[in-house]
Amino acid sequence: MASLKELKGRINSVKSTQKITKAKQMVAAAKLRKAQSAAEAARPYASRLAGVVASLASRIVVSESSPKLLAGTGKDAVHLLVVANSDRGLCGAFNSNIVKAARLKAKALEAEGKKVQFYLIGRKGRAVIRREFPNAIIGGFDTTTVREAGYAEADAIAAELVALYDAGKFDVAHLFFSRFRSALLQEPTEQQIIPVPAPKSAVAADSVVEYEPEEEEILSQLLPRYLKTQIFGALLENAASEQGASMTAMDNATRNAGDLISKLTIQYNRSRQAAITTELIEIIAGAEAL
Length: 290
Hints:
five-stranded mixed beta sheet; 5 strands; elongated
C-alpha cells in the first residue's frame, strides 16, 4: 500500500496535469471557432467552382488532347496517397484515423496489383507509414514552419503534385484528410484529386450556355485552380477537425483527472484514518502497560 506521502504526491501531480489539460481545452475551444468559420466559409466557393468545372467537363469529349488533369495518363498502375496530418498531438485519434484510412486504401490497392506511393503533409503519422511502407514515400510538405496552413501552402503542395504528375511519377492521386462535422465528430475522408473527377453537380450538356474561349482552353486554366481549392479546403477542414478533436480529448482528460483525484483522495483519507487508528491503539496499549 502506498504511503501517505506518496498518495499526497500523486494527488498534487494529477492536479497539476488537470490544470494543463483544462488550459489546453480552453485554447482549443478558442481556436476551434476561428478554424470552423474558415472551413465553413470556404465550402460555398469550392462547391461553386466544382459546378463550373462540371459544366465545362460535360460539354467536351475527353480525349488525349484534353487537359491532362482531366484526361489522366491513360493508365491506372501507380497510385499516390496524399496524407494530410497535423504537426501536434494531444488531439485524440485525429491523426491515427487519417493514417488508418490511408493504410487500408494502400492495402486494398496493393491487393489489386497496383503500386502505392505516399506524399505526406504534416509531421504526425510519418513514423507509422515509414515503418509499414519504408520505400514508398516520394515526397512531402513540411508545415512546422507555418503557424496556420493556408492558400499559399495549398498552392505549393498543388504545384509539387502537378510536377510529379507531369513527370510520370503516378497515375492517380488520392487525398486523405478529416472533414469537420462537429467538435465531437471528425470524419476521415478520401478524395480523388488527380485526375480531376467530373463532379456530380454537372450542368446538363444541353444548357443554353456559351463559353469564350473554348471549353478545353478554359479548363486548362481552371483545373489547376480547382486542384488548389480542393487541397486548401482539406487543410481548412483538417485545422477545424484537429481543434475539435483536441478540445474533446482535453475535456475527457480533465474529467478523468478529476475522477482519479477523487479516488486518490478517498484512498488517502482511508489510509490517514487507518494510520491515526493504529497510532491510537499503540498509545492505549502503552498506557495499559504502565
